[in-house]
Amino acid sequence: MTEAYVAIEGERVIEGRARAPGRTRGEAVFTTAYTGYEESLTDPSYAEQVLTFSYPLIGNYGVRSERFESDRVQPRAAIARELTEDVADWLASEAVPAVDRLDTRDLVTAIREEGAMGCGIAAGPEATPETALEELDRCEPMSAHTDIGARVSVADPYTLNADGSGPRVSLLDCGAKASILDSLLARNAVVEVLPYDATPAAVSATDPDVLFVSNGPGDPETYGAAKRVIEELCGELPIAGICLGQQIVASALGGSTEKMRFGHRGVNQPVRDLDSGRVVMTTQNHGYSVADPGDLAVTQRNVNDDTAEGLASAELSVLTRQYHPEAHPGPHDSLSFFDDVLAMSAAKAAPTAD
To answer: In terms of pTM, does the model score above 0.85?
Structure first.
């Protein structure tokens, strides 16, 4: 068995089997999802992280590119109790280190008890505990990755469904999942995809009906350009956001965010709508949350820990969700969010009363 070593904070080293060789480091997090490993491994929100799967067998239904959320594997490394050959070969082909045959229950428990933590990995013939510890020593906190948006965003603007008859959506790509774009296109929206650091003038030049701020990785406080767009255009345009997008919108409108202990990552997070009392199951992937909603009202809360899951302002035409309504592979309880977002464009188009 080719050796692999996973070093975590506290100078602890865990031995496993190398399935894809390499050395790397990142923030160790876990997901409780038992399906959707292709979507998780290609989700840009996992950039600069080491993804641990709590479900023991990863890869039991193969690897199909049509399920990918981006054009590449996004985490720095992957850890599982057992990885199939299909997934191991995929990760190796993308030069992403992978480790299995270790006690993931113990690792997940450590993250739950101590919080997301720095992690160093060394896998392959040359791996030693010392090389894993060297990687751990080089690991930086997520807040230090001030240019993380550049790693996951588009470099140049482009248009999807240019001939569509639906509302025009300008989407700030902070690491958008493909399924968000697909959900907008399924409603015949014209989607202008813009870099995460687009200026207010660049957004206005696309003549949008709605400004949409996507999901993405890292600390929301490092997305200063996106905050400036919201500050300048709020009141002129309806604004929507998902995941990181909710955090950026809240921060731009007088609120604040905070780092969570170990975050929400999985497909079974219960969320209560405060108006209707209805509880829906949601897919989530985030390590930060909104601490203070600022000028917005909290409309939905997490049943488990009471964190803000939905924000809104009718006066400002703002609607956001902390979870992923487009959820791939599911659940699909909240797909109507996209209908609600596009309906906000009618407010922009409505004539002003004399």
So the answer is: yes
